[in-house]
Each structure stands twice: as structure tokens, then as C-alpha cells.
Amino acid sequence: MPTVLLANPNAEVVSRDERQWILCGTHAHELRAEIDAGADFEAVKALHDSLPGEGTIVVLSSRADEPTIRAHRGITSAYEVFYCLDSSGEPVLTDLFRNALARLEPADRTVPDRAKADHLLYRTTPIDSYVERIHRLGHGETLAWTPGETTPRTELTETLEPEPDLSPTSAHDRLDEVLSAVCAPIADDASLMLSGGVDSTVLEPYLTNPTESVTGAFDTPELEFEREYADRANDLVETDREVVEMSESSYLERLEAAVDALGMPPHQLQTPTFDGIYREFEGNDTLVSGQVADAVFGLGGSLEVARKVWMTRHLGYVPPVVAKLQQHRDVLERLRRHPSDPDGQGLQFAVYTDVPSVVETIGRRQYERRQRERYEYAMDRVPDASGDSYAQHVHVGQWIDFFCEDAVTVWRQAGLARGCEMYTPFAGKAVAELALGLSSPERYVRDGEPKHVPKRLLGEWYPEYDRSKPKGNGNFPADRFLSTGPLASVFDRYDVPEFAPDISGEIVDHSPGLAWNLAGYAVWRDRVLRADDLEPVSHTRTVSVPSSAPRSPGETV
């Protein structure tokens, strides 16, 4: 019997015409009205595709003239659909990876070489999942599955198109309209995750006044400036704020608790911060986050370095330090490659490791295959890159980040595991198409100002906000954490994974990013992957289609 295990506490379950519908995301109200009017799957999907937010639809049917299971993940949706045949051979769909894993016996939880290579490179699996038997519906893909079919049919049925007639000087006005529409469904019933950065602060005007907010903070000295950012932003926008304070000395225990709940490796070091908020915040269980703004409007990491290199390429600029000169030459060489080149600048985005060591371990062919699959996945969903070489690499890198970086999907799942929902307005389809309506690289940088579209909008709401302050990202100092800090003993408690690169000396001394990737995997392997008592999270609802007898709305497991 096909079963959906539903962790999202806010997902709607609608019964109509021998179908069970599950609606996750921004526009459940509009979609429910369409279903109540008798619409079929194609009509509901067409409406969903036309709306500005993000979401995912699943429908179970007992009708003989259509597939038993159909699902569609919106083109920008971070509401996941994992699916598998469980250890008893029954079809299972779920929005939480842990719940799918719980339906497999430990012997059936095989981690393929592809997933190990992905984890070493990206600290996630950008396209599929960590376990061979568990599959993942891609952005913009539609699934059809009838029991008896070994493999469901999936097809890319939705892509992004640039919004026409946009000007960089007025794009912030359009963003204002889109954020108003996307935030409206939850404006009265949500709390803001306020970091003090542009991305979270600009969302405050779209929520009910006075806005309830929460800031999560470890007492890590290197992040003191970010706590000050949050304090200053709150003084400016005047929210009713709760601060969830966490001790750095408890980081490993909090990491273990987060992985236990999530059921997968933690991805970024900030995951325990999000988990702490979900566990300890006493306000609303819908939490609004500024995540994804960097991917559609920002310019980060390697591409910001690339901008400086590209702008000075004709000036005979020579950095004053030998190491910087070599970096300048390396970046320029990567920018002159085709954007699809595995070693090009665009495809170095969202790579979190020492690449040469990983390539030596997994082999050059596997590395090129992993990079090529990311490129094809992202570029199948957006228009081709255009402009000069820098513009093309920026375009590729930012959409790789949007579709393949995965932090937002992991942090949403962490919320679902705790009975909360993270709501991400910048993941709305209309936001992405607005960004595409501006040419690269001007959608990211204008007159030297990165992320100018949301910054200009924030400036209109709050002129006093300091838009020029250095950007924070909440990331912990991995090198100190793993050498002398709260993770110094992690490889005493958890063995280094067997697929780790062969490195002499301490891994953290060689590459803190690689060391963190291995630590996160080791914690997950020992606490979750091998666990013989793994159960779905306690608040999971079960939605199914019996072969006979009336169906009822989802019931808690």
C-alpha cells in the first residue's frame, strides 16, 4: 500500500474525488480552492506553476484511470520529496529523509560511491540522496508511480524564465511586490529568524507589526560581531525578540542531537544553531528565514574574488604578495575556461574541501562526472549563460548555489524534524525569475555594490541601516573547532570514514573544510545510518490509499 510519511506540521491534506492531496508551501489556500472545485492534477499543477511562491504537491489516487502516486516539486521549491521501496517492498514518499531511512532495515541502507564522492566535495548530495534505495525528486520535476512499476517515471516539467522589461533601477520595487505576495499567507502567524543581515532584516516589514522574532547565538568569540549585528537590527526594526543562547562547549552534543533528528549529515556548521532555535524557541512554529537571497541576488566566496580579478585583468595589476599573485593568476585562468569546465570558476562554487586531495581519492573521472552533473542539473532549469566570460561564470556559479548547495533544504528538514516549518520568501519562483530578468553580472553587482536589489529595498524601508558593513554568514571557525575547540575529540568518539583521503598528519591541519565533511559524516554513520531502532519522527502523519475502504485525512504515526 503506497504511503506518504508527512513531517511538515503545516502541510494540508485534502480528500476529494478518490484522491488524497498533500499541499506544502506558500499557496496551499489557492490550491485547495482549485481542488475543492474539482480540478485534476494537471490543472492544480498549472495553477501552482503560475504562482509566485514555492511549494510541492503530492496526490494519492485510487482511480483506475490515473497513476496511484503523482508528485510535483516546484522549480524553486526546497520542500523535498524522497521516495523508495521500503524493506518490505512497499512504496513510500516523505518530506523528511530520516523518515525514508527509518523504513529501511540497516542492511538495506547502502551508501553508494557517488554519494561518498559528493559528500567529500560538497558536504551534501546535490542531486540524489545519501542512500542507494532512497531517491529524491528534483526541482521542477513531476513523478508518476503505480505499484508494480519498479521505477517511477520522473520528468522535468517546469523551468525558470526571465521576467521581462525589468530595469536594475526599479527591480527593488518589483521585489517589494513579490515579497508582499509571498509573505502574505503567513504574515500573521510567523516569527522572523533575525540575524541582523540584509536578507532577514528586509523581510520584517512584510510580517505583522509588531513582528515576533528570534536570534540563535553561540558564545563563539569569532561570531560576536554578528550578535552585535542582530542587536543593532532589532533596535532599528523594533521586533519582539527572543534570543536562544547556546554555549560553544555544548556544540558537539548539539551537533549529535541535530543529526539524530535530521537523519542525515549536518551539511554546514550552522546546523546546530538552527536546530537549537527549533527546539528552544517558544514562539510560532512557522519561522521566516532570509535564506536563498545570496543565491539569487548575492555574490559570495569565489565569485567575489573572481570579480576583482576580472575587473583588473587589463590593468597590469600585480598583487603585492606572492601567494596573492598566484591566486590572481589561478582565478583568471579558471575564468578563461568554459563555464561547464569542471575546473572553471563557476563550478568551484559550493565546493567545500581540498579539491586535489579529494580528486586523488575518488579519481579524476568521478570528479568530472560529479561536476558535470551539477552543471547539467542547474543549467537545464535556467536560460543559458550569456555575456563575457566573467558574466557566464557568475551565472553558472550562482544557479549552482541555488539548486545544488542544499543548505536551505537541510535546514528546512531540521525544522520539520522538530515540528516546525522554515518559510523562505526568497525561494519564491517570482523572486528567481525577477533575478533572471536582470542580466549577469548586473543582477548581482551594480555600481560596485553586491546584492544591490534587496539592499536598495531595505534602504527604502530603513534608511538608517548600514548597508556597507562587512557581511557575516554565521559560519563557525572550523579550524579552531576541530583542533582545539568543541570538536577536537570528534575523531576519538567517531572513526574517520573509510573513504577519507590518505593524508599524513592531522586532517584539520591540511583542510578544515575536508575535516568537517568527514566529521559530519562519521557522526551520522554511527548514530543514524547503522541504527537498528530508527523510527519516523514522533509527529509524523501517515497518508495512504487503501485498496478498499474509505480514506481519511493523515493520522499521526
From TrEMBL:
It holds the Pfam family Asn_synthase. Residues 146-157 have a biased composition (Low complexity). InterPro entries: Asn_synthase, Rossmann-like_a/b/a_fold. It comes from the Archaea. Residues 143-169, 538-557 are annotated as: Disordered. One of its GO terms (molecular function) is asparagine synthase (glutamine-hydrolyzing) activity. Residues 539-550 have a biased composition (Polar residues). Residues 191-477 form the Asparagine synthetase domain. GO terms for biological process: asparagine biosynthetic process. This is Asparagine synthetase domain-containing protein. It comes from Natrinema versiforme. The lineage of its organism: Archaea, Methanobacteriati, Methanobacteriota, Stenosarchaea group, Halobacteria.
